[in-house]
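Design a sequence for this backbone.
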């Protein structure tokens, strides 16, 4: 018996796939957990949101498989004829890089069925279930998979054709045992890649000798001027996408110059994802930027580095064990005033002390936005940046609830 533990997107996606394939299974979560059934299970597929501290890991670790690990054994039965699997992971930038890779390949290879899946939106299992229902197994498929560390944890058999690892910084230590385990989960993507993987020069030191001999080091010198993207971090993201796409084009027989020209044409028309440093409103000379998808200190650093002048920063949220101590120098040069909230406010206060940045702690997002705009006008600062640098679970349903509330508040000012 196969047990799917978790009724979120991944759990429901796996359940849908198993149903479509007529494979007997049962779905449960904490509300209907049954140890008798779990004890008799052959395999337990655990959703990414279930932490290692959970009872199910403590009691049934020998039966647990991740979604991708389980799919490695199931894929031959699905009968896909021609597939290319591309995995993308990072602490910061993986969603943007996945989004761009997907759109570029979709435009450059219209004859192929290009799908974006994984942590980005639709789980891999749900994507496969849809292909079966649509009877499209015989088409040429390219799967662009955003891979979280949870998806890669314990992965032994699933194989990617191409992959990207952008960076690794302290994150998700509320789920992983320690940073070493988190980093190793990220590196697992490269170890499970068959043809080629790409790593920016700034992250090359993460690789051991075996990996460095197999990988491609990407120089971080992409010209953003023809694109709609901002910031040094996006130079790295797009440079890495370019290397992967041109490598794939070469494998498909494209002339290198034709591929390069077409790549630039396509990428110039791609818009950044919502809530990634987007200007959403200007009030009395104060520009308000939404970077609400930012959930780590590493991505907060990237956001602040994208601007030349000081800003009023709105930051803070759920504490998942992140380290903010390295932000002090950046706060000195980039933050004129900080409006803090949530569990991580205490950590960010220490950064403000070290950087001698004035700050205030507020109880709500509504108060944070109002205070930030008020202080920007008072201090003659032209930018307010909402870049939480933390998860959302302490005050919001999820990160999308957080950004929706932020935009609604800004619209009422």
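Sequence:
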């Amino acid at each position: 018996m196969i047990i799917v533990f978790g009724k979120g997107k991944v759990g429901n996606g796996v359940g849908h796939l198993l149903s479509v394939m007529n494979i007997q299974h049962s779905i449960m979560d904490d509300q209907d957990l049954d140890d008798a059934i779990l004890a008799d299970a052959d395999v337990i597929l655990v959703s990414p949101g279930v932490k290692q501290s959970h009872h199910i890991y403590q009691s049934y670790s020998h039966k647990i498989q991740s979604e991708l690990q389980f799919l490695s054994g199931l894929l031959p039965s699905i009968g896909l004829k021609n597939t290319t699997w591309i995995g993308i992971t990072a602490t910061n930038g993986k969603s943007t890089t996945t989004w761009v890779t997907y759109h570029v390949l979709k435009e450059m290879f219209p004859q192929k069925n290009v799908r974006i899946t994984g942590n980005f939106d639709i789980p891999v299992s749900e994507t496969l279930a849809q292909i079966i229902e649509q009877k499209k197994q015989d088409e040429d498929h390219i799967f662009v998979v955003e891979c979280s560390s949870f998806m890669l944890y314990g992965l032994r058999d699933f194989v990617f054709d191409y992959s990207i690892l952008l960076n690794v910084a302290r994150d998700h230590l509320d789920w992983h045992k320690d940073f070493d385990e988190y980093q190793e989960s990220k590196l697992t993507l490269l170890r499970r890649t068959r043809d080629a993987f790409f790593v920016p020069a700034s992250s090359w030191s993460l690789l051991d000798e075996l990996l460095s001999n197999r990988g491609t080091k990407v120089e971080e010198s992409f010209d953003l001027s023809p694109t709609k993207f901002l910031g040094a971090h996006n130079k790295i993201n797009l440079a890495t996408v370019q290397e992967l796409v041109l490598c794939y084009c070469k494998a498909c027989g494209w002339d290198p110059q034709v591929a390069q020209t077409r790549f630039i044409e396509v990428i110039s028309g791609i818009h950044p994802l919502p809530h990634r440093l987007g200007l959403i409103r200007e009030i009395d000379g104060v520009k308000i930027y939404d970077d609400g998808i930012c959930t780590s200190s590493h991505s907060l650093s990237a956001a602040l580095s994208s601007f030349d002048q000081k800003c009023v920063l709105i930051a803070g949220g759920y504490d998942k064990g992140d380290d903010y101590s390295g932000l002090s120098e950046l706060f000195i040069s980039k933050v004129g005033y900080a409006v803090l909230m949530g569990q991580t406010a205490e950590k960010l206060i220490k950064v403000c002390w070290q950087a001698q940045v004035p700050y205030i702690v507020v109880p709500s997002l509504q108060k944070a936005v109002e205070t930030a705009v008020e202080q920007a006008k008072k201090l003659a600062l032209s930018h307010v940046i909402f870049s939480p640098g933390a998860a959302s679970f302490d005050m919001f349903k999820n990160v999308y609830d957080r950004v929706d509330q932020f935009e609604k508040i800004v619209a009422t000012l």
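The first strand starts at residue 2 and ends at 5.
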